[in-house]
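Newbie here. two chains, one complex. Structure please?
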Amino acid sequence: MLTISSRGQNMTESPIRKLSKYADQAKKEGKNVIHLNIGQPDIQPPAEVLAEMRQLNLSEIAYGPSDGLKPLKKSIQKYYKKNAIELKEKDILVTSGASEAILFVMNAVTDFGDEIITFEPFYANYIGFAIFEGVQIKTIKANIEENFSLPNLSLIEEQISPKTKAILLCNPNNPTGYVYSKKELELLKDIALKHDLYLIVDEVYREFFYDDENSTKGNSVLNFPELKDHAIMLDSISKRYSMCGARIGCIVSRNEKIMQTIMKYAQARLCPPTIAQVLANKAYTISDDYLENVVKIYKERRDFLIDRLSKMEDVMSSHPMGAFYTMVQLPVEDTDHFAQWMLEKFEWNNETLMVAPGSGFYNNPEDGKREIRIAYVLNKKELEKALIILEKALIEYPHTIKEKNKILAQ
Amino acid sequence: MLTISSRGQNMTESPIRKLSKYADQAKKEGKNVIHLNIGQPDIQPPAEVLAEMRQLNLSEIAYGPSDGLKPLKKSIQKYYKKNAIELKEKDILVTSGASEAILFVMNAVTDFGDEIITFEPFYANYIGFAIFEGVQIKTIKANIEENFSLPNLSLIEEQISPKTKAILLCNPNNPTGYVYSKKELELLKDIALKHDLYLIVDEVYREFFYDDENSTKGNSVLNFPELKDHAIMLDSISKRYSMCGARIGCIVSRNEKIMQTIMKYAQARLCPPTIAQVLANKAYTISDDYLENVVKIYKERRDFLIDRLSKMEDVMSSHPMGAFYTMVQLPVEDTDHFAQWMLEKFEWNNETLMVAPGSGFYNNPEDGKREIRIAYVLNKKELEKALIILEKALIEYPHTIKEKNKILAQ
């Protein structure tokens, strides 16, 4: 019989996708759906990049080198140098987005059945790639009450087995917005050295931090000389320059064997997209003003959002210090149901919301049943409207915990 | 101890790469190196695509749908319809080149340790992807004396085990240029049905056939209704429209479960490159003239090349009917050594050649020791010069079989 592989069957479906059909239906019915569910920035790419696009005049669209176009690699090298990270060119390999970077890195450090440790809630696609590669993801839960900071070391060490090859961290964090402190990174460094584990850090939001005391500057995993062989960093221009569709990311490590191994993977897939690399190179060479302005915008939104959420009854948000997400605990028992209900049954002035239910960010979906992830990739006016809608929806939703308690009390 | 995964260690290095340093050195020394080693077409992309590129005026570079931009999918659907292949939109998923297509398809049909059957010589990166995914590639040798046609059915059936999930074919073939006949495809169809195996056909060279009797029109794996669930086709615009650097390919299958599984992989990596998809869409909508002209050019080169090779002493080429490669048997014992020698020690009017040694196209490198692959992606004048250089090199090379026999006879 023709069969689908177990890994294919086990592959998780995008948690958003299950909701998409309800969003589509709502739109068909004429409702405006405000999307708080996806990390697609509304901010434009740098004007210089758009200008470069308008004057692209290549006579060919040829294969480039498997590790990326040389000018782009040089620009990336300069970018990190400006961020106090000295690298050789061979420490950098350009990938088709951070997605390909994760795929390659996992394959280079694990064999079938090996384990990688990460923290919950997590970027859902880590699990997808792990299933694709036959890797077990072991998780340690971070808690909203502690702002999703690094869990206790003893809990981490408990999870380490002879099959554990790496700790995977997202800093600043998607979905929590938490920015790990220098001290937390040092604790992870100690564990990595003690147990000889790779420390893989997804730093695609590295420019997005909103409080000076939580600076990610100087807090890259690449800033720890002792981790020369242990540190692997994943990066991407998708969020930084609002160029999600370019699919340009990179893997950075000073571990020569890792980079040589990944180069073999890179050769098998030939090269990253050429035109996008030309535009990425432009993005890397613009002045700092663009990013400073972008960060300012996100900070204002963050401040507004968190303030507004803190005033909602029975709603608890963590305090995100970076990226552009926050995890919010709602006074409902099942945010999957609530999210679907908002799309199917609710409207306010003919508008409604799409949010990402928390269940998709946890190994055990139950752990996220009361949470949602909000991405603040909308302008303040839209965000304000979205929060009014959320508030109204929570009042009208018949299955809030309050309503349930009322019924139980009757 | 920090370790590299076994799969990473076992990953094959690009067979070309080992030679690249000698080519670089030759260039440093001022020699012109003519590249017959790589399938990078010298032909320009369609003028309409280059024009579209010059007038790209997007205001964002956003994520697209995971299965590809809708207009592109519609254009692809139309393209196949014109080629007598009726498809639904959901039968098509856009990928980052055929490379990603192979990666996804292998993962969907095999689990760790499963087997896929293919024919030797093969596209070297099939092996790379198989190692990446923990898949065993079992091979059956095709022979230059039989023009690399389909090996005997009994040899194929001998290789089938309970772990075999698919037969993988490249048609028209890279590296041999062989075009499988309708009859051969029917034989494979029967095997696929009898043993319930997927028949995965890499048709990236589907437009490139040079003799009407070897038409690939109507000879797609998708033209066999009985194979509705068994047939999976891989395609790409890289060669067809000389857009290798765009990294746009697709997976096509009417097997719903396969496509649903692959959609989950596609979602994990978010989307294929957006700008390249816009250009790919343009390429799919141009008139047939472009491809007719391109095929005419390659046919002329093929005719010239094969005629010229047939006149060289002790040189045997197969008769390629499609793609733009041919495997050539040389009167030397080790083409790896010969290829390196041409770059390091040989020149003719300060020029030399880079060829792809045959060893990289066989499971057992020894099987390809006397062969090289030539890609005819140079204009006729360059090709002519290249063949003169090859001829001169074979005369001067001190380790030809003839020279060896002379020494033995002394």
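Moderator note: The domain at 47-284 of chain B is CATH 3.40.640.10 (Aspartate Aminotransferase; domain 2). Chain B has two domains: 6-44+290-409, 47-284. Thread marked as resolved.
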